[in-house]
Amino acid sequence: MSQLSYVAAVDQGTTGTRFMIFNHAGQVVASHYEEHHQIYPQPGWVEHDAGEIWDRTRTTIGGAMAKAQVRAEHLAAIGVTNQRETTVVWNPKTGAPYYNAIVWQDTRTQTICEKLIADGRAEMLRAKTGLPIATYFSAPKMQWLLENVSGLRAHAERGDAIFGNMDTWVIWNLTGGARGGVHITDFTNASRTMLLNLRTLDWDDELLTLFNIPRAMLPQLRPSSDQNLYGFTDPTGPCNGRVSICGDLGDQQAALFGQVGFEPGEAKNTYGTGCFLLLNTGNEIVPSQSGLLTTVASNGATCFALEGSIAIAGAAVQWLRDNLKIISNAAETEEIAQSVADTGGVYFVPAFNGLFAPHWDMYARGALVGMTRYTRREHIVRATLEAICYQTREVIEAMEKDIALSDSRRVAVSLKTLKVDGGAVKNNFLMQLQADILGARVVRPIVNETTALGAAYAAGLAVGFWTSLDELRQNWGVDRVFEPQWDAARREEGYAGWRRAVERAKGWLK
Known about the structure:
By secondary structure, this protein is an alpha+beta fold. The protein has 16 helices and 23 strands. 35% of the residues lie in helices and 21% in strands. Strands 17-18-16-15-21-22-23 form a 7-stranded mixed sheet. A 6-stranded mixed sheet has the order 3-2-1-5-14-13, with helices on both faces.
């Protein structure tokens, strides 16, 4: 084995953490995954133990390196990708979090968001950040922590409390933690806080004042792929040596990078805990009029994207397993769903924490409609898979409207082909349903863990392990193409039923 043979990535997700090692061809050399606990203190609240996540991260790094017999001196660089918006505040002197991490799905900040809307702040916030006012984002979570955790504001004002999404937390710990860890984030993650001005690409003082957040709490802004390096792993840490840390992207932007979606008009959809479709708009900031987000895609000013964020996708399958206990594992949904010809008229709208794109209804709640005495377990399982696909169709239609309404001349989209990735794309029946419901080809790559691959690419480019985007494009390969099989009448009838079901779920708490 030669020196600097590989690049690796930490993929810190909503349900677990993975460490993956890649060779120069972008192939997986080794991978190790560990789940962490989901904490639900009360309805609508979702938390993670940030200390547990760091412990799991250490375990995954050691596990993958042991499997491949890889040592620190064999790694050219490490990239980090992460669940976005999930918010943690900790003491930089001790490394101890002041409270559990508040997860992106959490809705406890509903009152804060309602007040912002009532005060007429929505237009200003969207103009500056590209985001609607929603419980999804980090700034309301930070405000809640500062107002509700005893003594935290005093600690923050003394400089003894710093903030990060999970990328910042992982990188700080990887680079030494309380012994000198670097406090940074990249522009993709910063664009999800509701504190970054997309036009200045800096933390916005007006927004910091609005949320009453001390600027000193915020991490330094750095490029997603940084030749200057963020820092090095702690020699006594899980890598057992010094490795460059120089790549950082939010998970969905990392997946777009891993799918080599480098040009305006290229798009991908990731099927994980939620479902996230990103469309590269190049250096143009395309405002959304159809319920989508405008976000940074990578490397600050060089690339922006439109995004459709769906809160619940794979998490709905977990709900079938953990709450209803009608399946024992996610893999069996493929066989169960195929055992019936259709859902028997059942629709499932998994709005457990409200509806994200394109509706942005924080008052919506889950609905299972159309049931009769004929309804069986198989119909509910199939309706869950169909819900993932119908939500994706809603987002694609919104995306096409936004591009049609924009002044862009460089971006054109008519998604006759959709690149897909994420853990759920292993389900062949789900991917066939997606093609049928969209009426479009669905293309699955050979490496479907493109989130980790994108972070590895960003880190590898920074240190010259890969020298160009064309080199990365050559690594991308197709595993399988799913062609639509439903006729137009069936497709439109099913979609009309879905839209009726969504209307019954919307505004439930009101």
